[in-house]
Structures are given as C-alpha cells and as structure tokens.
Write a structure and sequence with these properties.
mainly alpha, two-stranded parallel ribbon, 6 helices, flat
Length: 176
C-alpha cells in the first residue's frame, strides 16, 4: 500500500505518465537529491540574509516579508522550473503511445485538460469568494452569487484547461 502510494505521489509530482521503471525512478531520485541540496543551501543563505537585514534595520517584519517572499519565489519558480526542465530533458514526461492507440491518447489528454480546467476554475472561484469575504466582510452568499467571481472562475478554468490540454497533447509521442 505504501509503495503504491509513494509511486502515485512521485508520478503526480514529476508528471510522469506510464509505468515508473528503473530508469525513470533513478532519474527522479537524482533530480530529487539535487533539488533537496539546492533548497537546503538556499534556505541557509536566505535565513542568514534575513537575520542580517533584521539586525541592520531593527525591523523584524521587513525581514520576515523578505524571507517569506524569497522562499516562495525560489520554491515556485526556481525549484519548480528545475524539476520541469530536468523531467523534460530526460524524457520522463513523454507519453509513449502505440500507433493504434494515438486517437485514444488524444481523447484522454483532452479529457484530462478539461478535468483540470474544471477543478482549477472551481478552486479559483472559491478562493476568490473567500478572499473577498475576508477582506470586505461581505455576505458570503452574496459573494457566491457575484457575477464577477463566477466569470473569473470560468475564465481561469478555461485558460488553465486549454493550457494543460495543450501540454498533455504535446507530450504524446508515437511509438511503432
């Protein structure tokens, strides 16, 4: 049970389709080790910089905001970009499909993009309503029925669904 859950988490995080064979597992381990070392060194460096800023300015709020911002930016853009680049470079994300199964793979990719778009759109709609509720203290029911929140969620869902659908379609590789 734990091994299958671990495999599912690895495949989901690295966006691997198909079986997780020895080559893919060794590359995932290498990427994960490099990422762990990179994140550790960055955290040590940014905490040291935040402490220097706090000591120099005597403003702990500024140091905390710099620390949080730098960690978020580094984790999302640098570490996430590194994982995506390496996974693409070593062809971990390729969806190899036989010639007769290509049509089925295209339909599955479009369905997956549609599902991602629906989930993302609903999530953004709920987060937008929650953010408005927390900042304005308006009626939660009124916010759920607000047309701008609904349109925002729909547009986010469409954009995300189309984008992920295109990515899934581009990952399909024909094999003979």
């Amino acid at each position: 049970m734990l091994k299958t859950l671990n495999t599912k988490i690895i495949k989901r995080f690295y966006n691997i389709s198909g079986p997780l064979d020895e080559y893919k597992r060794s590359e995932v381990n290498r990427i994960g080790n490099n990422l762990g070392i990179m994140l550790f060194l960055f955290n040590v460096l940014i905490i040291f910089i935040a402490l220097l800023i706090e000591e120099a300015t005597n403003n702990s709020t500024l140091a905390l905001h710099i620390l949080i911002g730098a960690i978020l930016i580094f984790t999302v853009y640098i570490a996430g970009g590194y994982v995506m680049y390496e996974a693409h470079r070593y062809r971990l994300t390729d969806n190899e499909v036989e010639e007769k199964e290509v049509r089925h793979a295209y339909i599955a990719a479009l369905k997956r993009g549609l599902g991602n778009g629906i989930y993302f759109g609903v999530g953004m709609y709920l987060l937008d309503c929650l953010q408005e509720y927390m900042s304005v203290n308006a009626s939660l029911v009124g916010l759920f029925l607000d047309k701008t929140s609904i349109i925002y969620g729909i547009m986010c869902g469409i954009l995300f669904g189309v984008t992920t659908g295109i990515v899934y379609l581009a990952r399909i590789k024909r094999v003979k």
